[in-house]
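Input.
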Amino acid sequence: MGTSHRHKPTGNPNWGKASKAVTQISKDVSESNELSNNPPKTSSPQKIAKRLSTLEKRISKSYHNAVRNVVRASGGRSSVSKGTSKVMGHSGVYYAGAFTSTFQEIAEQGLSTWLKEKGINSIEGKTTKEIIELLSRFMHDYFTGLDDTAAREALEAVNDLVEDQVIQNGGDFDKTFQDVVSSELIKDYLDIFFGVYIYSHLSQSFSERLQKNCGFEEANYTMLEIKGLIIDDVKRGFNNRPAGQIDWKGDEGKRFISQEFDRIIQILTNNED
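Output.
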């Protein structure tokens, strides 16, 4: 089992740059909302549309800057994507490996057999969500701090995807995990996982400061805007890299996870180290 502290490189200049970028997003989001909801009568629709377009581009640029500087403050893209940084990356890579290897084990053994090996003989009466939450307990390690919290939130996002897939398959868990690990769904799950993971780091690090400076509502709206941008970019970044035949329990799976995480970071930093 592993342990880590609540690492947060507040003395790193890149951390300050990330904080400033998030603050700028908040200002631009606030102005954009005001223009959209209460357009000034003295400005033409064309002028307002032009300003909104400018703000949209600025928000996108600032969010990329925020992610890029958090990654830099955490040791750089290579350290983060390989999971060697305790600030960001370690728990993310660990949890990504935990859920992919667990999915493969269940696909190979069947849910009932897998659970019996863990000492659970019956899941009678449990809902789909309760069963998925039960599975998640076996994927957790005893890390602590911001990084572990981010990884747990990302795993919850994957759990939601699994729940939807199980429902589509009429409650058949075995079919669901077989479908996921034998197709590109597993890679899409990884991409969403890492997108939410990075978002959670930003949220934990900067939302409290935003709340103090501009209030809860504006801070919450700002972070939701950032999350939406991240998830949109991750989904647009889905590629055709084959993942259906990966051995997630071995070195091949570990390499794939680090390479895919690196690719996601490139997307979210706008291809700048």
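Confidence is low (pLDDT under 50) at residues 1-6.
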